[in-house]
Amino acid sequence: MASVMQRGQDEPFDVVSTYHRLLSEDPELTMPVGAIEALILGLANTPASTVSETLDLVSKLTAQLKRSIPNPISLSAGTDLFQQYLISNLQRPSAKGDFDQIRSHLVQNGRLFVERAKAARETIAGFGRHFIRDGNTVLTNGGSRVVGSLLRSAAESSNGNGRGSIRFRVIYVVSPSSGSVEESESTANIAALRERDIPVATIPPTAIAYCMDQVTQCFVGAEGVVENGGIVSRLGTLQMATLAKAAGKPFYVVSESHKFVRLYPLGQQDLGIEQNIVDFRTAKGSESGTERREVKDEGVADMEVETGSSKATGVASKPEDAVDYTPPHLISGIITESGVLLPSAVSEELIKIWF
Amino acid sequence: MPSQTTTPYDIVASYRRLLSEDPDLTQPVAAIESLILGLANTPATTVSETLDLVSTLTAQLKAGIPNSISLSAGTDLFQQYLITNLQRPSARGDFDQIRSHLVQNGRLFVERAKAARADIAGYGRHFIRDGNTVLTNGGSRVVGALLRNAAESGNGRGRGTIRFRVIYVGSPSGCGKSASDNETAANIAALRERDIPVAEIPPTAIAYCMDTVTSCFVGAEGVVENGGIVSRLGTYQMAVLAKAAGKPFYVVSESHKFVRLYPLGQRDLGIDQRVVEFKTGKGVVVESARGQTDGEGGDSLVVGESKVDYTPPSFINGIITEVGVLLPSAVSEELIKIWF
């Protein structure tokens, strides 16, 4: 906890529970934006009177947040963005004068950022709508709000009756085992589309290859877009991308630009999070215990340091929160609110945001 | 239908009973057994009456089971066998004698078919080497036997000398209670007993783990003329992902599952299964021009767990049968040998 700053407070500010509360209260909120809001609330509630104290507070809260969530990739996009924003603002020459004024100005701007992030979804739907034409069949993974709003926007486009002039069909891949938030999100999307006379079919994840020949293009959402243009998304997205490429169908990623992360993974195991998807077990128990022992026996000095830092989270992902990494050569385009980007353009965007 | 018996012989019920009673029985072999029982139970005195009876029973069976590809391999084989036997010159003489001889030979066939699994395991064992990671779809008894055999091979203590790992792909419905899921669970437990590490993954994680996999083994419901296979829904997907990652994909199947079918695509299998069914707020969108309405009756719809897909031969690296390991292009040769 941020105990150094507690002088005036009755209860310490709990950024993790604030973050979870914000996410559950507002279903439209994405993880990075939720993280930014939680940090803004943390700033507003905790008195800090110097620039370095503020920056220190923010980095402490960020570290707390990242430690408590098993998969911090998505929210780290938001926290890193906010930290960057703070640093650039607090180091401006006009930042002399009343610190409280600066702080409230920052908090206000932060709120403006959150509003803009929510509005981004509409802009994205506007761009993405042109990718869907008459007679197309769209394949999508369930659970992405951006994709849902894109499809709904395409369904309603340009007709006063509330029925769109684009006639397309949607195939939703639904994992039958989950009873989580994502499934109810998919169900809501599917019902909304069906109401607008868009035929929707739901298939199990084993039938993606089966139906790929009748699909025109695929749309998926992402938890994070990484530096090389690849994405980190729900487990099963890599599979859909590989199958789309094998069948020659375009594969589009739909994502807000605040989800761009400064991460460059070299493979599935290089994401910096601990998830036990492939867990080898014999009658004696899990094999992963013996593997770690073997690694230590190698005697290579820096390997120990690496395993130490990657296990820093200490919280393992649940199976339904598992994510995978889709490399950029499988992605045909990334639809964001600043336009439609090729995967190679993502690093340009990141430079624009960060420098 | 025969008029002398009190209750007419119900081949569909007999087929289903045979399948549920003997968990080691495959669909074609169960079809052959039920036909043999039908022959034994129904009196027929001439050759043409017998052949007619068999074709009537076969038609009944195919109409009663929604996914008739696998069992049609067995029925066609039996019909062919009958015809060759009944048309031999030595087939003059007491017809009853011939019939009982046929029934006996039929039973011999069933015994051989069950023993085939051990032969296949013997051939397939050489495909698994030290340090390999094997990926497999659940629910195939042949693959389970092959893996268990590899686990036990060559060592008197019941623990094999080949150290490999297995990744089992679970069925999409999560916890399954069907016979194939129990079979899978039994296989996994048997492998773990022999110190073979086994991991179970959901079907969404196949691409995720494909780079750690050395080879894939799957079973088949039927092997079609061009060397492709008809197998559980999800097999085609695994084959595409294996090919995309450059990993070998092997099919393990008895030779009595070879079917005289030549599908041109997923929807050319001759069965009615609605995998992709579009619905709007007003109800199901019916695709009338599709040819899916070729299915005979409304109740011959394949549902739920028994859906199948077709994997073309270009994705298959080898078919391991009890007559050896075949390339997909050799399947039509085998079919000719069986049929002519």
Task: Describe it.
Chain B: Keywords: Cytoplasm, Initiation factor, Protein biosynthesis. Chain B: This is Translation initiation factor eIF2B subunit alpha. Chain B: Its main location: cytoplasm. The complex is a heterodimer of chains A (355) and B (340). In chain A, 46% of the residues lie in helices and 12% in strands. Chain A has twelve helices and twelve strands. A seven-stranded mixed sheet of chain A has the order 3-2-1-4-7-11-12. A three-stranded antiparallel sheet of chain A has the order 5-6-10. In chain A, helix 1 (15-25) crosses helix 2 and helix 2 (31-45) packs across helix 3 (51-68). Chain A is α/β, with parallel strands linked by helices. In chain A, strand 11 and strand 12 (339-341) form a beta hairpin. Chain B has 340 residues and is α/β, with parallel strands linked by helices. Chain B is globular. Chains A and B meet through strand 3, helix 8, helix 9 and strand 8 of A and helix 7, strand 3, helix 8, helix 9 and strand 9 of B.
Write a concise synopsis of the structure shown.
The complex is a heterodimer of chains A (355) and B (340). In chain A, 46% of the residues lie in helices and 12% in strands. Chain A is an alpha/beta fold and 355 residues long.
What is the topological layout?
The complex is a heterodimer of chains A (355) and B (340).
Chain A: H1 15-25, H2 31-45, H3 51-68, H4 73-90, H5 99-128, E1 137-141, H6 145-156, E2 169-173, H7 181-195, E3 200-203, H8 208-211, E4 217-221, E5 224-225, E6 231-234, H9 237-247, E7 251-254, E8 281-282, E9 285-286, H10 288-297, H11 301-310, E10 323-326, E11 333-336, E12 339-341, H12 346-354
Parallel strand pairs in A: 1-2, 1-4, 2-3, 4-7, 7-11
Antiparallel strand pairs in A: 5-6, 6-10, 8-9, 11-12
Helix pairs in contact in A: 1-2, 2-3, 2-4, 2-5, 3-4, 5-6, 6-7
Chain B: H1 11-21, H2 27-41, H3 47-64, H4 69-86, H5 95-124, E1 133-137, H6 141-152, E2 165-169, H7 179-193, E3 198-201, H8 206-209, E4 215-219, E5 222-223, E6 229-232, H9 235-245, E7 249-252, E8 272-273, E9 279-280, E10 283-284, E11 301-302, E12 308-311, E13 318-321, E14 324-326, H10 331-339
Parallel strand pairs in B: 1-2, 1-4, 2-3, 4-7, 7-13, 8-11
Antiparallel strand pairs in B: 5-6, 6-12, 9-10, 13-14
Helix pairs in contact in B: 1-2, 2-3, 2-4, 2-5, 3-4, 5-6, 6-7
